[in-house]
TrEMBL record:
Residues 128-236 form the TonB-dependent receptor plug domain. GO terms for cellular component: cell outer membrane. Gene3D superfamilies: Carboxypeptidase-like, regulatory domain, TonB-dependent receptor, beta-barrel domain, TonB-dependent receptor, plug domain. Coiled coil: none annotated. NCBIfam families: OMP_RagA_SusC (TIGR04056). This is SusC/RagA family TonB-linked outer membrane protein. GO terms for molecular function: siderophore uptake transmembrane transporter activity.
């Protein structure tokens, strides 16, 4: 009994201990659970900001873990003192402290080096950057400029070494930049690169909005560009737009608002100063004081300008079907009155997979509607240099008009000039995996660009009142343009890995392109009322009198080609690429319809060699060597054929007037494409544990069979000129681009990007056995006086050479003196103006081509703040200051530069062109500063929110006394560009230089 009792007490004791232990444990667990909270977060790629689905989040020191969903979102219970370990295949693991945070945004960095992970477009396919053997520059959206692009090319201005993007019309929203790669390649042929948008050759850049662009790749040398044949002489720019991705629906909204302020204008006399100069006799007696105080220039400034841009994008889908769609609206207002552009656009991308994942079909559709006000943007010269004591108004409030000048303010208030434009593109691509390693593709595209221009000057406008034929009769005009282009390109892609070290890839294909354009125009005068404006052209009196104008045109061209490319790599060390393109064009002469464009290049990854193992500061080092041939078919349709033109109306024997026709162009059956031969030596490198990376390229190129118009003998030719191939032009240069990660702390990062280049261009020959020309002159000076051209480019001399008189001082009477060829100071009438270099007193006095280009970008990140400072400059060149030449001389009877009474006060003579007006154009520009902040919003709905403020064109260091030196053209040989600007010559009526400030929002949900 006692033993049983003891056993029973022992059992009770053990039971009590167990219950007590259980209670303590439960209390501890409850206490721990009470301290833990639910933590939410997202895991994204640090560079692309894409969500990472399936990433693992684990509590450090414990087995508790969760994974992210398709949107990269996770939820986990954790205490404030816990540490999360985040890991994902292909990315570096990361630890993150909770620290009482309820929401955490995790950014993971790739394990691969930047060279390994970057994929570049090389034409009809992609390559990893470490596999590229030609000179290719890759700029992705994270590197784009932040100041609100008027053109997609503005996004990469200063970002690609050897590529000039110059806005000679400044911030005018209806202008386009000039683009030049590695110097001048042509005299009269096309100097524009080939633009390829998502595979569409000759893509229309107006269809691109900055928020829809993923990356831009530039094929700079012939060994890469040869795949595009006779369209690639000036380089190739490949644009890749953003595409759909599998995953839940995602939305993004991006916008900005920009305000521009006048930064620099001609430094002219005020009305008070002008009146004082009249009183002191410093201005001629013929100059009148009308008693007003008018700032004509300021009156055509749009001080209330506000530009804004809005882009809404959505994407999502499954692995089989995904999409991306975007809609864009932007309203760009220039600093000039009646100078703006409204655009509505949309873009759609659909990807569909099928046939057991062997078939992929991709379709893109884009359209853009543009309403542009073309009336403003000009008139700056006349308004800057008018007599400021005059007025735009009569005493009764009506507009003041005279025959000596145009009342630009009245013109902007009364007249209209508008463009309504729609541009559309559609493309389709189907990829089919035929066999392992063999894929067939079919690509087709269609582009359509149509616009209608209309102008109207009412009855009371200056244009109508001063017309001598129909005084007081209104003027109206309309024109239409339509272009369509088609492309069809089937290709076969082959890839094969032999063993573990021999990797072969090849592509072969056929290309068909057809382009057609047509248009018409009509104008009429003498309308007796303003009721119908330009919408009833037939009612003007000029049509009844046979003085109305009418015209139309239509032309087309066809290009077909066969092409192939082979890439081979061995052991990831040695790489080889060969390209050949056989191409025919309807533009060429009957005897030269076809051309062949070959290219070869090789690469050597030295960093993979055993002898590099001890050089542990080298992460990656590749040597490239390439040679390629490209062509230029960018000249007028039918240039090789006889064409007919009207010869005028004549009275026939039957008493009727009839139009006559005859040949207006000589045939040239031997007309062919210009051909450029280029050698490129390059090095790609990543050093010091990926802190310093970049590339260095040295190139030499020569373009032969230059296209231009020459005098032709009569007979046998009918016309006095012929378009033919004569001469060569060459260039050589050095390009350097690198990125340096100066600081890479956890909360603070500092990166430096540099792009620099130097190029030398020479016109080697300009004659052959049949056609001879010793020199070519360019660059009309214009303005007051008949001063001719500023450039004479002789055979064997550098492009952009100013030729003119050498200033030797002034006489006591203020008359010009110049040096003759013997170094003697003589009057202008004693100068020999011959262009024979053995006789002339003219001499090379400067050069308009910048010798060096440099851009520098500093990027800072502190926690959630980002800060960018972008600067760029051009060095070692001259600018001809024609504004000073014309308005620094007191011969002019309107307003004058203040310098006319200080710097140029000695002049008491007519207008003269000489090195007296050449100025150093070198400058350094603080071009862009951006400050941004990315919010950490504890929400599963809002994916990201960033706000930023950008200032553009903030300061310029230069000794040039004219307008913004960055507006001076630095492309071409000296012939006027699309905006009427010539190399190295300032514009007396330049669009005003502006400083702008932009506020933007990037919002994802």
């Amino acid at each position: 009994m006692r033993i049983a009792k003891l056993k029973q007490e022992k059992i009770h004791l053990l039971t009590r201990k167990f219950v007590l232990l259980l209670c303590v444990t439960l209390c501890c667990v409850t206490s721990v659970q009470a301290q833990q909270t639910a933590v939410e977060g997202t895991v994204r790629d640090a560079k692309t900001k894409d969500a990472l689905a399936g990433a693992t989040i684990q509590l450090k020191g414990e087995s508790t873990s969760v994974q992210t969903d398709q949107s990269g979102i996770f939820k986990i219970n954790a205490a404030p003192s816990d540490i999360l370990i985040i890991s994902y295949m292909g990315y570096k693991s990361k630890e993150s402290s909770i620290d009482n945070q309820r929401s955490i945004d995790i950014l993971l960095e790739s394990q691969f080096t930047e060279v390994e992970e970057v994929v570049v477009q090389v034409g009809y396919g992609n390559l990893k950057q470490r596999e590229v053997t030609s000179a290719v520059a890759h700029v992705d959206s994270s590197q784009f400029r932040q100041s609100g692009a008027r053109s997609p090319l503005d996004l990469i201005q200063g970002k690609v070494a050897g590529m000039q993007v110059t806005r000679t019309s400044g911030s005018n929203p209806n202008s386009s930049p000039n683009v030049q790669l590695r110097g001048v390649v042509s005299v009269a042929g096309s100097a524009s690169p080939l633009y390829v948008i998502d595979g569409i050759p000759g893509g229309n850049m107006d269809l691109l909005q900055q928020d829809d662009i993923l990356s831009i790749d530039v094929l700079k040398d012939g060994s890469g560009a040869a795949i595009y044949g006779s369209s690639a002489n000036a380089g190739v720019i490949l644009v890749t737009t953003k595409k759909g991705k599998a995953g839940p629906a995602q939305f993004s909204y991006n916008n900005y608002i920009r305000k521009e302020y006048l930064q620099r204008r001609p430094d002219v006399l005020s009305a008070r100063e002008f009146r004082e100069k009249i009183a002191t006799g410093e201005l001629p007696e013929s100059v009148a004081d009308r008693g007003y105080n008018t700032d004509f220039y300021d009156m055509i400034i749009n001080h209330n300008n506000i530009s804004h841009n809005h882009n809404l994008a959505m994407s999502g889908g499954t692995a089989e079907t995904n999409y991306r769609a975007s809609a864009n609206y932007r309203n760009l207002e220039g600093i000039g009155l009646e100078n703006g552009r409204q655009e509505f656009g949309a873009r759609l991308n659909i990807n569909q997979r099928g046939l057991d994942d062997r078939l992929n079909i991709m379709m893109n559709l884009a359209t853009n509607f543009n309403n542009a006000n073309l009336l403003g943007g000009g008139g700056w010269e006349s308004e800057a240099f008018k007599n400021p004591t005059f007025s735009n108004f009569n005493d009764d409030g009506s507009y003041y008009f005279d025959l000596q000048s145009t009342n630009q303010y009245a013109r902007l208030m009364q007249e209209t000039s508008r463009r309504k434009q729609q541009t559309t593109s559609a493309d389709f691509k189907a990829d089919l995996d035929i066999l392992p390693g063999l894929k067939g593709s079919v690509f087709g595209s269609y582009q359509r660009n149509a616009y209608n221009d209309s102008q109207y000057a009412p009855q009371n406008s200056e244009s109508s009142l001063e017309n001598t034929d129909y005084p007081g009769g209104a003027y109206a005009a309309k024109s239409d343009f339509l272009s369509q282009s088609y492309a069809f390109e089937p290709t076969l892609h082959f890839s094969k890995l032999l063993g573990t070290q021999h990797n072969f890839t090849a592509i072969g294909g056929y290309s068909y392109r057809y382009y057609i354009e047509e248009g018409m125009n009509a104008s009429n005068r003498g309308f007796i009322n303003d009721l119908f404006r330009e919408d009833n052209l037939g009612q003007g009196e000029a049509l009844i009198d046979g003085r109305a104008t009418m015209g139309s045109f239509k032309n087309d061209n066809t290009l077909i080609a066969f092409f192939g490319r082979v890439n081979y790599s061995f052991a990831d060390k040695y790489m080889f690429q060969a390209i050949v393109r056989r191409e025919g064009s309807s533009r060429f002469g009957e005897n030269n319809k076809w051309g062949t464009f070959p290219a070869v290049s090789a690469g050597w990854n030295l960093s993979e060699e055993d002898f590099m193992e001890e050089m542990d500061f080298v992460d990656f080092l590749k040597l490239r060597l390439g040679y390629g041939v490209t062509g230029n078919s960018g000249f007028a349709n039918n240039a090789s054929r006889v064409t007919l033109g009207g010869g005028g109306r004549y009275l026939y024997p039957d008493g009727q007037y009839r139009e006559t026709y005859g040949p207006n162009r000589n045939p040239n059956p031997n007309l062919r494409w210009e051909t450029k031969h280029e050698v490129n030596l390059g090095v790609d490198f990543t050093l010091f544990r990926q802190r310093l990376s970049g590339s260095l390229d040295l190139f030499q190129r020569k373009t032969v069979d230059l296209l231009d118009t020459y005098d032709s003998p009569q007979p046998p030719f009918i016309q006095s000129s012929i378009y033919t191939n004569v001469g060569t032009i060459s260039s050589r240069g050095i390009e350097l681009a690198f990125n340096y990660k100066a600081i890479t702390k956890e909360h603070f990062k500092w990166g430096i990007d540099v792009a620099a280049s130097t190029t030398r261009n020479v016109l080697d020959t300009y004659s052959n056995d049949v056609y001879t020309r010793e020199y070519k002159d360019f660059g009309s000076i214009g303005g007051a006086g008949d001063l001719g051209n500023a450039f004479i480019t002789y055979e064997g001399e550098k492009v952009g050479q100013f030729w003119g008189k050498r200033f030797a001082g002034f006489t006591d009477e203020g008359k010009w003196l110049f040096y003759n060829r013997n170094g003697e100071a003589v009057r202008n009438d004693q100068i020999n103006y011959s262009k024979d270099r053995d006789m002339t007193d003219l001499a090379p006095i400067g050069n308009a081509v910048p010798k060096y280009y440099l851009s520098l970008n500093n990027s800072f990140n502190y926690k959630r703040f980002d800060f960018r400072v972008f600067m760029r400059g051009k060095f070692g060149y001259d600018i001809l200051n024609t504004t000073a030449l014309t308005y620094g001389n007191k011969v002019w009877t309107g307003n004058l530069l203040r310098d006319a009474f200080t710097k140029y006060d000695e002049i008491d003579d007519t207008y003269m062109y000489s090195d007296y007006y050449l100025e150093n154009g070198s400058h350094w520009k603080l071009d862009e500063i951006t400050v941004g902040y990315t919010f950490n919003i504890p929400s599963t709905t809002i994916k990201n929110l960033r706000v930023y403020l950008t200032g553009q064109n903030l300061a310029t260091i230069t000794s040039y006394s004219g307008s913004d030196p960055d507006f001076i053209s630095d492309t071409g040989l000296g012939n006027a560009d699309a905006n009427g600007r010539s190399l190295g010559i300032d514009s007396r009526g330049a669009y005003p230089s502006t400083r702008s400030f932009l506020f933007g929002i990037n919002f994802g949900f």
